[in-house]
Amino acid sequence: MADKAEGVAADNAIDIAEILRRLPHRYPFLLVDRAVEYVPSTSIRGIKCVTINEPYFPGHFPHEPVMPGVLQIEAMAQTGAVLMSKSLDVDVTRNTILFMSVDNARFRRPVRPGDVLEMPVEVLFARRNIFKFRGRAEVNGELASEAEFAAMKVEIESK
């Protein structure tokens, strides 16, 4: 029987090795540890295990560490980039997916060390190399933040 991750077959999961192949981000700015519920060109659920070792916690805030809301949105955007990079089989040596804009961002609850941030992201539309998404960041099913955001596939300039 196939392994299950939250009731989804393992072949719909994306591990950290593939995320590293799909995104140019690295420590300390890689904000997706794995993804599940991948449906090509449609939706995905990114997962970020938030630890006290995150580099932003000493300053945000020393006695009450909270994941910055803008990083929650960035984590959703990275999840969307994984979705489209895999769906379109983007050649990451020649192209990347860049965050363009954010709309309707709302923050509902703090995200703290020890939380597992789950980020369901769905494609609202995709035209040529432009993509619009709706994302949520949830902890134990409770909404932490939400936003709509756009990204575009661009060619990497040779140096």
Remind me, CATH topology? Thiol Ester Dehydrase, Chain A
The string of secondary-structure elements, in order, is EEHEEHEEEE
Which strand order do you get reading across the main beta sheet?
3-4-6-7-8-5
Q: For the terminal residues, how far apart are their CA atoms? A: 48 Å
Which whole number gives the mean pLDDT?
94
Main sheet record: 6 strands, antiparallel
CATH architecture: Roll
Number of strands: 8
The share of residues in helices is 10-25%
Key terms:
six-stranded antiparallel sheet, Thiol Ester Dehydrase, Chain A, 2 helices, globular, 16% helix, two-stranded antiparallel ribbon
Task: Characterise the protein shown here.
- The N and C termini lie far apart (48 Å).
- Residues 1-8 have low confidence and may be disordered.
- A hairpin with a 2-residue loop joins strand 7 (130-139) and strand 8.
- The strands form 2 sheets. The protein has a 6-stranded antiparallel beta sheet with strand order 3-4-6-7-8-5, covered by helices on one side. It has a two-stranded antiparallel sheet with strand order 1-2.
- It has a single domain (19-155), classed as Roll (Thiol Ester Dehydrase, Chain A).
- With 159 residues, the protein is α+β, with helices and mostly antiparallel strands.
- It contains 2 helices and 8 strands.
Blueprint of the fold:
Layout: E1 4-5, E2 8-9, H1 16-22, E3 34-39, E4 43-49, H2 69-87, E5 95-107, E6 116-127, E7 130-139, E8 142-155
